[in-house]
Design brief:
single chain; alpha/beta; 6-stranded mixed β-sheet; 4-stranded parallel β-sheet; 50% helix; elongated
Length: 525
């Protein structure tokens, strides 16, 4: 089935939702208008729509939003006597009464209308079976027209009102789904409410299987739950014009080239996205949100993940309103590699790795000044130490750069087609000769010696990969700090507290990243 969605704010043609997946997700930032969007869509569908709201169902004893709920409408139209109807004040109570009434009607029909036939399986039977799958240690008993429950902790029977909020939510959703009309479009508002994550996912998997004829549209803030709806198209609501009942939205295609949770997290954002290396505890994750406060910074671990995620998000047609960029360490990449990444919206710093950013001259001077030390003296001492360390590690660094260049060259040039193993073997041997690893190594050594002769501190930061450099140069001690962690924390505190030195550090880091440059030509200049 295809559903025409509400009008768009930009007056372009409304999108059409294909419900073949059996479910869809409406997501957006707080205040974007996604709940209003879902209500407007439900109203436009008329009798095909069936709405669920667990908060109203468990706690509201009257009507919702000035309109009778769909469950209340079914209940009011039932053959339950009026005096009995007046006793049920919430949708959950009404559903339980409907289940017991249907069970009674089924038994009477079996006894008087179709005697001797097999007893028909009822909604209550299906609900109890589902309940036992969700809560295998709990039991349900029908006694004197009431549903009674027991738990694994005790064999005592108790009514539904003594269930936890989560258990009552499961009971409500299970019963309500069973009363949805055939082929209904079911709108589930906040389907995660009151539910433990494990229960939440298994419940909705059960309910989708319970009513395969229906389409369930979830309106949710819970990114983990949204990501669990595999293959679901996502309606991304960005903003709402309430006066004209129009929305800025897109229907995102189901995707399989990026992590589901991350995908949902991005769609829940209003800011542009910056993918970075490292995890939540890394220097990258601590530094870059303070350098780019206007962006949603997402650590992804490896550089390959950053590159692939940036490409994927920028390739998705529906994300044309949002830009995604990435940052990866320069490491030992050559000019061609850096230019390629910059063309893909990946920022590559003018230093080898994240630790080197913290050793930029402007950063060192700013920290020294914040700590009451002489900035020129501190930087001069750090510079001498870095040059000395690099001189000691020069040949090892040259070897690592050579190995990287050889590896990349082999990857680029060994992808041809070969008729036999002999051709492949000859191609590899020719590559080794053409690459000439020893000559390449000597050229790196010569280049690095020139940097040392010129005391070119910035050039050395660009090629020197050495994790111990931050502690080995004694920048922390020169600033009056105990260790490198305190030095790192001081930088973060300066940026977080917006101290007088913060603009200097922020500007230095952005310059090193070429953050304000045009990357369209790949140069970042």
């Amino acid at each position: 089935m295809k559903i025409t969605l509400p009008d768009k704010t930009d007056q372009s043609a409304p999108d059409v939702l294909n419900t073949s997946a059996g479910h869809a997700v409406i997501i957006g930032a707080n205040g974007a208008g996604k709940t209003r969007f879902s209500r407007f869509l439900a109203q436009s569908l008329g009798d095909k729509a069936f709405t669920l709201n667990v908060v109203d169902a468990l706690f509201n004893s009257t009507e919702t939003g000035g309109a009778t709920s769909d469950i209340a409408a079914i209940y009011n139209a039932s053959i339950i006597p009026t005096y009995e109807k007046e006793r049920r004040q919430t949708d959950l109570e009404r559903l339980l009464a409907l289940l017991i009434n249907d069970e009674l009607v089924n038994l009477l029909n079996h006894k008087f209308v179709h005697p001797g036939s097999e007893l028909r399986r009822t909604r209550l039977d299906r609900l109890i079976e589902m309940w036992h799958r969700i809560f295998p240690d709990n039991r349900v008993l029908v006694d004197n027209g009431r549903l009674l429950f027991s738990s694994a902790e005790s064999s005592d029977l108790f009514p539904a009102r003594r269930l936890s909020h989560g258990e009552r939510a499961v009971l409500y959703y299970g019963a309500a789904i069973l009363y949805a009309p055939e082929h209904a479009i079911i709108f589930a508002d906040s389907p995660e409410m009151f539910l433990h994550p494990a229960t939440m996912q298994s419940l909705w998997n059960e309910l989708e299987d319970l009513r395969p004829d229906c389409t369930i549209i979830y309106v949710t803030h819970d990114l983990e739950f949204a990501a669990s709806r595999t293959g679901a198209p996502v309606i991304w609501v960005r903003a709402c014009d309430t006066a004209n009942s129009t929305w800025d939205y897109s229907v995102m295609p189901p995707q399989d080239s990026i992590d589901d949770k991350l995908y949902m997290a991005i769609l829940g954002e209003r800011r542009s996205v910056l993918f970075i290396e490292g995890d939540q505890r890394s220097i990258d994750s601590r530094l870059y949100p303070l350098i780019f406060p206007d962006k949603s910074v997402k650590p992804l671990g490896s550089c390959n993940k950053v590159i692939e995620s940036t490409r994927t998000f920028n390739d998705l047609n529906g994300l044309h309103h949002m830009s995604a960029m990435g940052i990866v360490d320069r490491d030992r990449r050559d000019i061609a590699e850096v230019a390629y990444l910059r063309r893909k919206n990946i920022m590559v710093p003018e230093v080898a790795e994240i630790e080197n950013i913290l050793l930029l001259p402007e950063v060192i001077r700013a920290v020294a000044k914040a700590c009451g030390k002489d900035p020129a003296h501190v930087f001069s001492s750090v510079c001498r130490s870095i040059l000395s360390m690099f001189r000691h590690d020069l040949r090892q660094q040259a070897l690592m750069h050579t190995r990287h260049r050889v590896k990349k060259t082999m990857e680029y040039r060994i992808d041809g087609r070969f008729q036999n193993i002999g051709e492949l073997e000859k191609h590899i041997n020719d590559l080794v000769i053409r690459m000439n690893p020893r000559q390449l190594y000597e050229s790196f050594c010569k280049e690095f010696h020139k940097m040392l002769s010129a005391n070119d501190y910035n050039a050395i930061l660009q090629v020197y990969n050495q994790k111990s450099m931050l502690s080995g140069c004694n920048v922390a001690g020169l600033c009056g700090l105990h260790n490198k962690e305190e030095y790192i924390n001081t930088i973060m505190d300066i940026l977080r507290g917006d101290a007088p030195e913060a603009p200097e550090i922020r500007r230095a880091v952005r310059n090193a990243l070429r953050a304000d440059a045009d990357y369209s030509d790949g140069t970042g200049k």
